[in-house]
Amino acid sequence: MDVLEVRPEDVADYIGVDLRDANRFMVIDLVDTAVDLINAYVGARIPAVPSSVLTLATKQLCSELYARRNAPSGIAQWTPDGQPVRLARDPMTSVKPLLQPYRSLGRVG
């Protein structure tokens, strides 16, 4: 997947970020990181993944990575009764089900 397939403007709209000033570079970094993580997860079968799935997975992963910026120690927010709501440890948790059908099953022998 090429970074150019997912534009920073599209990601910024998806996560609700204004692209002025330093935010543009932050969003570009998010896209680069998301693409690297998705490529590492899917591997050589990346061409088999439809572009619509790659686009959604990239936006979703960028959103997850962006949310981590404001979640010290993985705590995203607190419930009314004071219990912490934690982010998943693996930022790929929400994206893996989208990409799983396109991964290789492995080799025998």
| Average pLDDT | 82
Helix content: 40-55%
Amino- and carboxy-terminal Cα gap: 30 Å
Task: Count up the helices.
Answer: 4
How many strands? 2
Sheet-strand content, in percent, reads 5-15%
Radius of gyration over alpha carbons?
A: 16 Å
Strands of the widest sheet, in order across it, are: 1-2
Globally, the shape reads globular
How would you summarize the topology of this molecule?
Blueprint: H1 8-15, H2 23-42, H3 51-69, E1 75-78, E2 84-86, H4 96-99
Antiparallel strand pairs: 1-2
Account of the 3D structure:
The protein has 109 residues and is mostly helical. The chain is built from 4 helices and 2 strands. A two-stranded antiparallel ribbon has the order 1-2. The mean pLDDT is 82.
Please describe the structure with a list of short key phrases separated by commas or semicolons.
109 residues; globular
Please provide a brief summary of the model:
The chain is mainly alpha-helical.
